[in-house]
Amino acid sequence: MTWSEMVPLLWEATKESAYMVLVATLLTAVGGLLVGVALVLTDRGGLLALRPVNALLGLIVNIGRSLPFIILLVAIIPFTRAVVGTTIGTSAAIVPLTVGAIPFYARIVETAIREVNRDVVAAARAMGASRREIVVKVLLREARPGLVAGLTITVVALVGYSAMAGVVGGGGLGDLAIRYGYQRFETEVMIATVVLLVVFVQLAQMLGDLVARRLSHR
């Protein structure tokens, strides 16, 4: 394959991968944050201590984290079809990407919030702050550097997941690498997709580290 033929394919695949990762990241940030906060609040000694709910949430999160992504990708095909109407393409790939990443990020959120100084929470409660104010203005605010750092790790994982989605026709750089690099023995395409995936990861890591450092200095 000539360079002039390769560039349009790489450009289209790069846009598809960026779209998948961006949308999945936004959905994961919201879903993972909600689940992570719920894990903290419903635990013993939490603001909404409900051990049965906490145990159920923990079980669901652990199951989600334990499944290899390629198995999850296939296992939730009926759910993916129900959500987007198809199991092929970038929009379809976003569903398993999000489902696989939310449990991963939820545990990171839980850990980051648990690291918040308990004295700060106690002081807020003593001043009459409501549960919502404690969560938003104390827990999440104090945990911001850890939340951003954790989201960065999640984005890096999503880049890898998005490439794996190419196995089932999810589009993006993974799909291009399989169709041309593997099936047609186009070594140049395989190398180019690997380089682009590395660039994706580097950019995500640099941006996440920058934001986390700025938040930690405030």
Could you explain the architecture of this structure?
This protein is mostly helical. It is elongated. It has one domain (3-215): MetI-like (MetI-like fold, Orthogonal Bundle), CATH 1.10.3720.10. It contains ten helices and no strands. Its main location: membrane. Keywords: Cell membrane, Membrane, Transmembrane, Transmembrane helix, Transport. It is found in: Cell membrane. InterPro entries: AA_ABC_Transporter_Permease, MetI-like, MetI-like_sf. Belongs to the binding-protein-dependent transport system permease family. CysTW subfamily.
Quick tags:
membrane; D-methionine transport system permease protein; cell membrane; MetI-like fold; mainly alpha; MetI-like
Please tell me the overall pLDDT: 89
- The total domain count is 1
Q: Please give the share of residues in helix.
A: over 70%
* N-to-C SSE string, H for helix and E for strand: HHHHHHHHHH
Helix/strand/pairing category: mainly alpha
Which stretches are poorly predicted, pLDDT < 50 over at least 5 residues?
Answer: none
Report on the biggest sheet.
none
Shape assignment = elongated
Give me the CATH architecture, please.
Orthogonal Bundle
Terminal Cα span: 51 Å
Strand content: under 5%
Look at the structure and name the CATH superfamily: MetI-like
The CATH class, by name, is Mainly Alpha
> What is the count of helical runs?
10
Number of β-strand runs: 0
Say what the CATH topology is: MetI-like fold
Radius of gyration: 20 Å
